[in-house]
Amino acid sequence: QVQLVESGGGLVQAGGSLRLSCAASGSIFSINVRAWYRQAPGKQRELVAAITSGGDTNYADSVKGRFTISRDNARNTVLLQMNNLQPADTAVYYCKIVTLGVTYWGQGTQVTVSS
User: Fold this and answer.
1) CA angle, 70 as apex, 65 and 76 as ends, to 5°?
2) What one-character DSSP code corresponds to residue 11?
3) What count of other Cβ atoms lies within 10 Å of the Cβ of residue 11?
4) Could you tell me if 11 and 114 are in contact, meaning their C-beta atoms sit under 8 angstroms apart?
5) Could you report the per-residue pLDDT of 29-52, keeping only the tens digit for each?
6) Cα–Cα distance, 96 to 78 (Å, whole number)
7) Is 78:20 a contact under the CB 8 Å cutoff?
8) Is the separation of the CB atoms in 51 and 112 below 8 Å?
9) What is the H or E stretch that residue 87 is in?
10) pLDDT tens per residue, range 52-71
11) Pairing mode, if any, of strands 10-13 and 109-114?
12) What mean pLDDT, rounded, does the chain reach?
């Protein structure tokens, strides 16, 4: 089994920054994809950013130039640096990894951006 623990969410004013962290533990082998998703109230969960084992990244258009996804292989951690946050970024943010064809999700961390 794999466990994902997210941290770093909170309340920030518009224009501020937060850094989310997702630490993976358990039976981890060859993580293929690490990603962050978010879900705002009344909306579907959407991809925010993803990074492959080869280092290729993909971002939602709404966060390009503001968010950066990175990974720390030694610590099995995936990070999301979020700058210039806006009220539209308010959501619960979820970490996801795919390893050996199995998808695991974190429990989510709340990000609230006030105007």
Assistant:
1) 160
2) E
3) 12
4) yes
5) 777 789 999 999 999 999 999 998
6) 9
7) no
8) no
9) none
10) 888 999 999 999 999 999 99
11) parallel
12) 94
